[in-house]
Amino acid sequence: MNRESVQNNFQYLQVTVEYKFDKGACVPLRVHTIVISAQHKASTPLEKVRSDLIEHVIKAVVPEDLLDEETLYYLNPCGSFIIGGPQSDAGLTGRKIIVDTYGGWGAHGGGAF
């Protein structure tokens, strides 16, 4: 998969980037944290899911020079994710609608939108 294809197909990924401000420009320094919760088949071991996410998603999307030894990875941090959809998570935090409204960059106080 090329970078554009991965970006279009995995829009649910969360990445926290550390920036510096340089004469009004917001310049990325490094990726601080990557959080991915990906639903998978019960027959797929969790470690395979995690290694596949690193190889086929993170390395394909995140520029290598922004990853370092201090980058934090939370890949299916709650363990196996077999049951998905509304029966698994109602998504009541309001984050998705905020991203849909404002894009990936913006301040928010933390309450539901």
TrEMBL record:
GO biological process, one term: one-carbon metabolic process
MF GO annotations: ATP binding; metal ion binding; methionine adenosyltransferase activity
Pfam families noted in UniProt: S-AdoMet_synt_C, S-AdoMet_synt_M
E.C. numbers: 2.5.1.6
Residue ranges annotated for the S-adenosylmethionine synthetase C-terminal domain, each copy included: 83-113
Enzyme class: transferase
Cofactor section: K(+); Mg(2+)
Pathway: Amino-acid biosynthesis; S-adenosyl-L-methionine biosynthesis; S-adenosyl-L-methionine from L-methionine: step 1/1
Keywords attached to this entry: ATP-binding, Magnesium, Metal-binding, Nucleotide-binding, One-carbon metabolism, Potassium, Transferase
Domain S-adenosylmethionine synthetase central, first and last residues per copy: 14-81
PANTHER family from the UniProt entry: S-ADENOSYLMETHIONINE SYNTHETASE
UniProt record similarity statement: Belongs to the AdoMet synthase family.
Name the UniProt record assigns to this protein: methionine adenosyltransferase
Organism: Parascaris equorum (Equine roundworm)
Lineage: Eukaryota, Metazoa, Ecdysozoa, Nematoda, Chromadorea
